[in-house]
Amino acid sequence: MQTSDFLVKHKFSADIDFDVLLAEFDRQMTAGLEGRPSSLAMIPSYVSLGKSVPANTPIIVLDAGGTNLRVAVIHFNEAGEAKFDCKEKFAMPGTTGETLAAAEFYAKFADFLEPVAKRSPSVGFCFSYPTEITPTLDGRLIRWTKQVAAPEVVGQMIGAGIADALEKKTGIRLTVKILNDTVATLLAGAGAGMSRGYSSYCGFILGTGTNIAYVESNAKITKVAGLDRGAKMVINCETGNFDGAPQSDFDREMDARTSDPGKGLFEKMISGAYIGGVGLALLKTAARDGIFSAPAAEALLAFKALSTKDFDDFVANPFLRFSALSDIPFTDDDRRAVMELGEPVFVRAANLTAANIAAAVLKSGAGTDKLHPVCVTVDGSTYYKTRTAFFKSRVEEALRKILYARGVYFEIISVEDAPMIGSAVAGLIS
Ligand code: BGC
Predict the structure, then answer these.
(1) Does residue 129's CB lie within 6 angstroms of at least one atom of ligand 1?
(2) In terms of DSSP bridges, do strands 374-379 and 200-206 run parallel, antiparallel, or are they unpaired?
(3) N or C: which end of the chain has fewer CB within 10 A?
(4) Domains and CATH numbers, the chain
């Protein structure tokens, strides 16, 4: 069987009908803002732009990403530059094989905070999971993503839980302010891009998980009563859970093996925690369908897990030695097949990434004047480090095609440590 026929047989296509997908994004974004059924939670962040950040005021920052938990103390100097007074990195609780009870989870955060607890009365907590935010910036965890194992924490107020645990341990009470990493990234970009005259801002993450935030008029957030309708706030879309992209057999097979089947379907097609799993499901199916030589097929079928990095590295260079796949006795025809099958996984991810970013830029309604483009701040290792299929430039190319055709102008920027810097901003202005 030809590799192209194999992909069709298993309903895998890297080509995306952008018009259809963008219309579906728009429909579900609107439904989410209005409180109607939608796979997009469209969570109000209660963070808005335009407030000035006090200089020389330290703030504690926590950043719970996919695999790492970072603790820092940050202040902004008179010129508005972020300065790290200290920065530590730990493993994210619940990602190292253990299942944590809620009390254990909060106790770990109390341990992280104890050494810096006297440096500021507030913590800006970048919490990168679907979380309903209150007007005072506490947050109730809706569900875990990225396979974190701490099930009791779901439904609880994260900020209060951590503040209580720290107080119990040290007698110190801190105010913990929760925001999503996309919201923080957007804020960091807004700080960095202040002088450029951007018409609006988005914060996009493609790392272990994926998601985007943009600025919306409160008048459109009709699911929340009592908002100042003339103002705007940042919305966390939770696009990792978007259910409008067509799934292949490989996506279904990989999803069935996760701890949250049926959830986060979009993220499971494009983000670092999952692309390797989709790739392995694809390679194993190809081995069963007779695409590879018998020895290579046998070795592939015995394979247990494949990380996104190992998959990416090998598809980009199938002669790679010392990688997860290099012990498999591939012939050159097999290697050709690995490229022909693997590249479309990354091409599809790049196209879906572009659709995700374009959807938010379009929803902002901004960027129609070339002088004032929309600033998209992008963070995340999968976006910047993926090698196969010219990943990053492919996303940019698709975005130019989609948005310029619609008369919408944008720029992509990156800000080092954006999630932490944005969390410091949020902690200080709110
Ligand atoms: C989470 C989002 C987060 C994204 C990027 C997703 O799994 O649900 O809240 O923004 O990952 O880190």
Answers:
(1) yes
(2) parallel
(3) N
(4) 1-44+192-415 (3.40.367.20), 59-179 (3.30.420.40)
